[in-house]
Design a protein that fits this description.
Order of helices and strands: EEEHHHHEEEHEHEEEEHHHH
Number of strands: 11
Strand content: 15-25%
Strand order of the largest sheet: 6-5-4-7-10-11
Helix content: 25-40%
Structural class: alpha+beta
Largest sheet: 6 strands, mixed
Distance between the termini: 18 Å
């Protein structure tokens, strides 16, 4: 489990109960002593709750309201907290994405079918779409609805490369990976750069570059292409060369991103930065990414998906039971978990 307690000083697991102390709003808490370095520390050391005096129930209700689409200023008014307090809580909660993501990447998976798509919002000034930093790349496992990548920025190479580099880490832990996208070819081009290998066919000449064995990429070209000159692109295609020993078991009706499109609609309902009726939905890219990290944690580890009726982390096999809000707030952010 990602919330197993360690010594925050030497990272040792050999700890024992030391004493208890009384808090202002949250009852008693324990002090522990490390048997290796003999340091004494609280059970909230290096967690979300370190140094906070507000009741945990209030913090959970505030974060729940934000994760269900309530606006930033509205939450401050309803719960009677300052903007700096809410901003600090969201930053602390978003920082828990690091240990949870690394914990997920430690597992081995048999097969994954990942859908890739983009969702757009405005950031800062009301600029043209191609200059906006509100483009968000989403990579989601179809069967479990587990979101692997949720990164925002300008729609350029760096944004797609950050998502594909995470996908390459997933490929290492998975025997059979399929990536399907709607119309965007940069996924396949960047993946081919990172995950290629040389295939020896037994013939003379230069060896052919192909994707790694077990990796497939399928593209569904959307919209009419009657305005294009020359040969039209097929509706379904493999945009890059694949390993000859990779099983070709994916049918054309399976090549779509319908599930991640539905996730985009859910994101617009549950994140006010994607649906506010103003000229600029989010003020800064950093703040938009913070809200996306909060959404990532709640979606993957806390909230049951309405179609699978399971928490995505359970459906993917990462956890046996979903995490409660209180459990997530007690996850330690230690150097071994930093990314």
């Amino acid at each position: 489990m990602p919330n197993s307690l360690r010594c925050p000083h030497c990272l040792s697991e050999h700890i024992e109960d030391y004493s208890v102390y009384e808090t202002k709003s949250n009852g008693t808490r324990k002090l522990y002593q490390c048997m290796e370095c003999h340091q004494v520390f609280s059970e909230t050391k290096k967690t979300f709750l370190e140094g906070l005096k507000k009741p945990i129930s209030l913090i959970i209700n505030v974060l729940k309201s934000r994760s269900e689409g309530m606006g930033f200023n509205a939450v401050c008014r309803v719960f009677g907290i300052s903007k700096n307090t809410l901003l600090d809580w969201e930053r602390r909660f978003a920082n828990l994405k690091g240990p949870l993501l690394i914990y997920a990447l430690l597992h081995t998976f048999l097969t994954q079918l990942i859908e890739g798509d983009e969702v757009y919002t405005k950031v800062g000034k009301n600029v043209p779409a191609e200059a906006s930093e509100g483009w968000t790349v989403v990579l989601m496992d179809r069967a479990s609805r587990f979101i692997w990548a949720l990164t925002c920025g300008k729609k350029d190479r760096d944004l797609f490369l950050s998502a594909i580099q995470l996908l390459s880490d997933i490929i290492i832990r998975t025997g059979d990976v399929t990536l399907v996208t709607d119309g965007e070819r940069r996924y396949s081009l960047l993946l081919f750069e990172i995950c290629q290998e040389l295939f020896r066919s037994g013939r003379r000449g230069r060896r052919r570059r192909v994707l790694r064995r077990g990796v497939r990429v399928r593209l569904k070209n959307k919209g009419s292409q009657s305005y294009r000159r020359g040969r039209k692109r097929p509706k379904y295609e493999a945009p890059c060369s694949e390993h000859p020993e990779t099983p070709q078991t994916l049918s054309n009706p399976e090549i779509h991103a319908n599930h991640v499109e539905a996730l985009n609609a859910s994101l617009r309902r549950r994140n006010s930065a994607y649906r506010r009726k103003t000229n600029t939905y989010a003020k800064k890219k950093r703040g938009l990414q913070r809200t996306l990290d909060v959404f990532w944690i709640v979606h993957n580890f806390i909230r049951k998906h309405f179609t699978t009726q399971h928490v995505p982390a359970i459906a993917l096999g990462i956890l046996k039971e979903g995490l409660s809000w209180a459990q997530v707030l007690r996850i330690q952010r230690l150097p071994i978990f930093s990314i």
